[in-house]
Amino acid sequence: MDDDASRRRLRLSRERLDQAARAAWLYYIAGRTQDEIAAQLQVSRQTAQRLVALAVAEKLIKFRFDHPLGACLAKAERLSARYRLAYCEVVPAADGEEGGLSGLAIAAAQSLETWLAQPAPVTIGFSTGSTLRAVAAEISPLAAPQHTLFSLCGTLGHDGRAMAADPVMRIAERTGAQCFPMTLPLVAGAAEEKALAERQRAYQTLQSLTRQARCLFLGVGHIGWRAPLHQSGFITDAELAELMEAGAVGEIAGCAFDARGRRVVTPLAARITALWAGDSAQAIRIGVAAGAKKLAALKAALASGLLNGLITDEETAATLLEASSSLDRRPPPRRR
User: Fold this and answer.
1) Fewest C-beta atoms under 10 Å: which of 23, 93, 240, 243?
2) How far is it, in rounded angstroms, from Cα 301 to Cα 220?
3) 273 within 8 A of 154, measured Cβ to Cβ
4) How many CB atoms are located within 10 Å of the residue 299 CB?
């Protein structure tokens, strides 16, 4: 009896979602009023209204903005020219961290969906972090079994505890793409543990995928107080201080780099279980990041070529352009 009741509830739930999808299509695509939808679906006006709301709540409807924003496009073109980017998109700035993150995630999801729509197989890599997890949540369900997705870094704590959901797994679930996660601690307990992991076939496969990658989607973290690596519990106070003293300004997939975009070499670096994004020489390496805290990291990664693609907001873009202009105006050094 319990199984029959469960199946009945599941069937009713699916039927209601189907009805919600019909109501949403009639409202958003066909332009029908709620009274017209109610009449066509043979329900009350209040029920029609609730069905449309259910479709939005279940993310059956995704908003796509088709009007070109001139100021954002202009900034994207200037950033592309200044840093020789293969890809650049600037989204409108939004008040509050959550609004800005949502805009970046939607733009990155649209870009990723373009890659996944290609008929020929492509290999795409991902770092982790809150921005990339937001991107994964925005991906529309689609069939893309010909493509390969992989993780650039481990997502476990030092004790094996899962610290955050791996975006690669979520994207693979929604697309059917082949998935190669890195189910290892981001920071190994000792350098010997990382060396052991590197000798495993699974890790060597990920290294091979890094060299084959056509595109990387990368979160960019800052190095400083309340840095993502520190706040998430991956590194200690002492390790954070060590990175700062070594000149680290940012990190991608757990790999710290300095103001010249060079990887910072510390004892901690020997324990980071991650693949260096710079090794994907043939890939478009797209940084998905915005905000004042990340400016130093973004400047370093863009100027050095560690990133050759960018998705950011207009406030961050304006500051990056202003900083690059001031550098261009700086007088040349005197010859001795």
Assistant:
1) 93
2) 9
3) yes
4) 20
Largest CA distance in the chain: 91
Domain parsing of the chain, residue ranges: 2-57, 70-329
- In 3D space, the residue among 157, 325, 134 whose CA is nearest the CA of residue 217 turns out to be 134
* Phi, psi dihedral angles at 215 (to 5 degrees): -155, 145
At 64 the pLDDT is 61
CA pair distance 332, 270, nearest whole angstrom: 38
Residue 96 has pLDDT above 80, yes or no: no
What average pLDDT does this structure show over 262-270?
A: 92
**pTM (two decimals):** 0.78
Mean predicted confidence (pLDDT) in 263-287: 94
Which runs of consecutive H residues, i.e. helices, occur in 160-236?
A: 167-175, 191-198, 201-212, 228-231
CATH of domain 2-57: 1.10.10
- Alpha carbons 59 and 111: distance in angstroms, whole number: 19
Q: Which segment, 35-39, 93-97, 112-116, 326-330, is predicted with the most confidence on average? A: 112-116
**pLDDT-wise least confident of 125-129, 319-323, 328-332:** 328-332
Q: What is the DSSP string of 278-319?
A: GG-TTSEEEEE--SGGGHHHHHHHHHHTS-SEEEEEHHHHHH
One DSSP character per residue, 216-250 reads EEEE-EE-STT-HHHHTTSS-HHHHHHHHHTTEEE
- Fold annotation for 70-329: Rossmann fold (3.40.50)
Q: How confident is the model at residue 305 (pLDDT cuts 50, 70, 90)?
A: very high
Q: Are 228 and 252 in contact (CB under 8 A)?
A: no
